[in-house]
Amino acid sequence: MPGAQSFAVETRSPSRVVRELEVARARVPRAVGALVFTCGAVAGELSTLGRELARAMPGLPMLLVPGAGVLSERGEIEGESAATGMVWAGGRAEVLSVRASSADEAGEGLARALGDQSAQTTPTALVFLRPEQLTPSSLEPLADARVTPHLFGGGTVGVDPVTVDARGEVRAGRAAALLLRGVSPPVLRSSPACRLLMPLRTISETRGALVTQIEGEPALDVLTSVGESLAGQPLVFAVLSDGDSGDGRPDVMVRAVQGVDPVRRGLLVSDEVREGSKIAFAIRDPKEAKSDLEAAARDALRQSAGAQPRFGIYVNCAGRGSGLYGASDVDTKILRARFGDMPLAGANSSFEIAPYRGRASLQLYTGVIALFSAPS
Known about the structure:
The chain has 376 residues and is an alpha+beta fold. Helix content is 22%, strand content 40%. The strands form four sheets. Strands 14, 15, 16, 17, 18, 19, 20, 21 and 22 form a nine-stranded antiparallel β-sheet that branches. It has a six-stranded mixed β-sheet with strand order 1-6-2-3-10-11, covered by helices on one side. A six-stranded mixed β-sheet has the order 5-4-24-23-27-13, covered by helices on one side.
């Protein structure tokens, strides 16, 4: 890809964000698209920002995303009004916006729109949806065969994502997507911020979303056993897995334990549980989060076939950051140590979307890395 440039700015002013993006664009000849991630007060004026960007940079498709924080290769910004973003050259970009009254309707509408736009092609799709009432099943339409397999993204915070298309039309909708064509698919890796309290074990019996037995033992008894040694009352999650990710790390999904069935001695987890798949219980852990992200970044670079990526997008759960580590910039320092000065932009999200078993799936407490290299 001929070039890419990121920017980062702490400001409450949409006009200041426009100026910063203009500076970034001036450094990238023949720019084809832009991403803008926002948080704080400036995120509350996302439609205003979209209109100002449309006037300042006509013909440039853009996706504007509100998050709990923003990040770049320079570091992470939390608790302030700020924006980061990316502009790049090479390939083609287009945006789409979906208005919907519910999360399920948004997922279905986004899948239809992506299917129509993808046709017989497989573009890369960066998607964002509002989190209210969203469940894993809301994303099931995105795993349809007609939708591109190169899909990742996350959940917004506060307001709808906004798109600016090549005609300058500004739209806000419950779901939005940026499609990239004519570029090689990104290398995607996800990294949960969890420490397993036990080895992954086989689910031997389920009742819908209820896990009743793990290798013949009541699921509630397994959870009670592994939780006895925990100090305090940390939030315990269920980690589901169906195999290896290909880099020696298990391919996993993190899910909340939503309730217990004392009669069946079962645990209510998710409609995604099935007999024969693996499960373990886990807690958030900063040491394991750092170690796994380092491994994911290392493998992502290895999978880039030795070519230094041109730019990266990092969707990071709002439950990570300083709230997890007790310090700022931990995740971005890990990425910078691996990728150097590569332009990077992203947001702290309410949930994440990344491949699991080859399907677009909802993730929690996870960092999602996307590395973009040369045009296809």
